[in-house]
User: Fold this.
Amino acid sequence: MQIHGLNKTTLLDYPEHVAATVFTGGCNFRCPFCHNKDLVLNPSGQPMFKEEEVLAFLKKRKGIITGVCVTGGEPTLQPDLKEFLRKVKDIGLNVKLDTNGYRPEVLIELVESRLVDYVAMDIKSSKAGYIVATGCEYMNKFDVNNIEKSIAYLMQNKIPYEFRTTIVKELHTEKEIEEIGNWIKGCKSYFLQSYEENENVIERGFHACSKEKMIEFLEILKQYIDNVQLRGITI
Assistant:
């Protein structure tokens, strides 16, 4: 599997677990506010970690870490993801998958095969705003139904999951937030996190919303979702 990064210990990436985070290369989206530019646009130019070395590290650290977060890029693009996750599970570690949800067939197969214990799926925008928020104008055909299939599957509550949105001032309005809330109404948990500008974003020039605006968005969403929270912002 194409592994381009390894965070050996994190208390943040996997709820209720001390975890390691594995970064895969490549993505089918081009979200302009993405802060993993090199992984998305130039994965072949990034250092590679041998799968055997990563697995040996995870085995050695078992007992200190209890979980592995697999993120990217977009992990579901990896043709050998299933086999890698099986090896992680064989070590005895829990697996969290970060995904954009555009390959629902892969997500469903991994969950049904019991290779994933927790899923965090990004909700980039409302249905109407998705193609702009994901930078997918380059695709011949962007099919938001793929996102809907992943949402619908996770909302069957077969596995613990969360939805999350990175809020960008230039992309998310009250109308967008209202439409997202109605779209994922009744979901188990939803987190809003604020955009942060850095040198690794695909396109510079975006901005975070104010704390007051984030709280306003939170109140809108509470009409639709019982468990909606701001991540990284103290009210």
Residues 177 and 217 are 7 Å apart (CA to CA).
